[in-house]
Design brief:
With 308 residues, the chain is of the alpha/beta class. The protein has helices at 8-16, 62-77, 96-107, 126-136, 152-157, 164-174, 194-204, 224-231, 239-251, 280-293, and strands spanning 21-25, 82-86, 112-119, 140-148, 180-187, 211-216, 219-220, 258-261, 271-273.
Length: 308
């Protein structure tokens, strides 16, 4: 089947000449929205167990996590090259000297080709970006900023602790430094209309974003969102509804942006809504089938908004 969107796997294989697998690690970071700097409860949807692999635990040293993750993936997929993904919480939220020790330790593993670093746009500065730029001279370095939404009303609703302009400032600081830039967006917040969600594809297409992760809103156990949903149930995407939505979003997104993720995948034991009872592969297959059925592709309906 013809791939009708710019997928991360295809892009990485073209860049490196082989498949590259991510090894997620927990380096013991916290978050300014949890440690009291700007908040204590985190964003209302946040439950880090929704994406933490078993090998990703601060009970193990960074080196142990990397080696355990590599051993598992190598055995299962016969892989020989890896990206270390600093995943849970805010992975630039420390002094630059500590960050340098962690990042260089990860890069010292012979089979590690680079780093992916998940963070918030309010947790970087010129000194940290300079560090990443120096590492990017010889390594693949991807920083993934949690944008979540470009609407102030939504960022206030989720208790994000920063505004959209903070994200734009982080992009401006990072661009043209040899660092690949990723963004995370969540679609499905009850604060936004369908067209507002789709318009984020237009806005992102105008920005210096190389990679994008799209998550649909999931209500998870042990979050503030769970309480809000229980007290006043709000709409979450139905399966067919989401398939139609993601097709339109991809159509309006620049084909230059590499798609790392098209939907969220929380474990069933903590997922409250929406429950689709579909595997990751089934969802990907259905998205690709619908793209083919509609004879459409990423960027087919790209348009540049009059203002952002």
């Amino acid at each position: 089947m013809l791939r009708r969107y710019n997928s991360f796997g295809s892009y990485i294989k073209k860049q490196f000449g082989t498949r590259i697998y991510k090894v997620s690690v927990d380096a013991g970071f916290t978050c300014p929205n949890r440690d009291g700097t700007i908040g204590t409860s985190g964003c209302i949807y946040c439950n880090n167990d929704s994406f933490r692999p078993n090998s990703c635990t601060p009970a193990l040293t960074l080196k142990e996590q990397i080696q355990k993750g590599i051993a598992y993936i190598r055995n299962r997929y016969k892989a020989d090259k890896f990206l270390v993904y600093f995943q849970p919480y805010t992975n630039t939220y420390a002094r630059v000297d500590k960050l340098e020790l962690l990042y260089r330790e990860a890069l010292s593993e012979p089979s590690v080709a680079g780093l992916a670093i998940g963070t918030r746009p309010d947790a970087v500065d010129e000194e940290k970006i300079a560090l990443l730029a120096s590492l990017a001279e010889k390594n693949f370095i991807l920083i993934e900023y949690g944008m979540q939404s470009m609407y102030s009303k939504t960022l206030r609703f989720i208790g994000r602790g920063h505004d959209y302009s903070t994200f734009l400032e982080a992009l401006d600081m990072t661009k043209n430094r040899g660092i690949f830039i990723g963004a995370h967006v969540i679609v499905g917040f009850p604060t936004e209309t369908r067209e507002e969600m789709l318009s984020m594809a237009d806005g992102l297409s105008c920005l210096p974003v190389d990679f994008l992760k799209i998550h649909h809103l999931q209500v998870l156990k042990n979050t503030t969102l769970e309480i809000l949903h229980r007290e006043n149930p709000f709409h979450t995407f139905g399966y067919g509804e989401f398939l139609e939505f993601i097709i339109e979003f991809v159509e309006r997104l620049s084909s230059k942006i590499v798609l790392q993720r098209l939907f969220a995948t929380a474990p069933d034991d903590i997922l409250i809504a929406p429950r689709w009872d579909k595997s990751r592969q089934e969802i990907l297959r259905d998205i690709e089938k619908l793209l083919e059925k509609k004879d459409t592709y990423q960027g087919k309906k790209l348009k540049i908004p009059a203002s952002l």
